[in-house]
Design goal:
Layout (H helix, E strand, L loop, with lengths): L10 E10 L4 E8 L6 E8 L3 E6 L5 E9 L4 E5 L2 E3 L6 H13 L1 E2 L4 E6 L10 E6 L3 E2 L11 E7 H9 L6 H21 L5
Amino acid sequence: MSASTDPRPWQRTDDRTLLHTRVFDVRSSRFRHPGRADAKEFFVIDAPDWAVVLPMTPQGELVMVRQFRFGMEGLSLELPGGVIERGEDPAQAAVRELAEETGYTGAAPTVLGSVHPNPAIQSNRAHVILVPEVQLTADLKWDADEEMSIALVPVQEVLQRARAGEVTHALMLNGLFLLEPWWREQGKKRGWAGI
């Protein structure tokens, strides 16, 4: 095969759930390449879609959370967000998660885009939602295993922290990328520092 050959989709021939948890399922799937007779086993994590929230204050600050993350075994500075419930609209899930985690609410949410967190092994999508004009208005409603600090951080500082390796959450970095066009437009109108 040459590098210039367009790849062809593989066909799924079989799958079975290996593990069911409250957060995700692990599935064994057999796929066959269209040019080959044999099928091979691959593993897929089936998780619900997620909402990643970009809560923007009128002053151009992001409402951010710092919390312990078990996978990295450390504290992570990141955007609020969480699981989208079955049948829930991503924008409404973002509004709900933002209020529950931070106590902030704002103007009408806008879906900026969606990404595949890790398409090699995950089937879900993360929806990036901007909630502008946020203000502290609600009581916190953390889950039993949630504990976090909340900070208002200017977007420029968030970008500096990301470039310095202090912000490593990939979905947050995706969110900042999708925020850029909106930020440039609003920044001109409001006199905010550019990205």
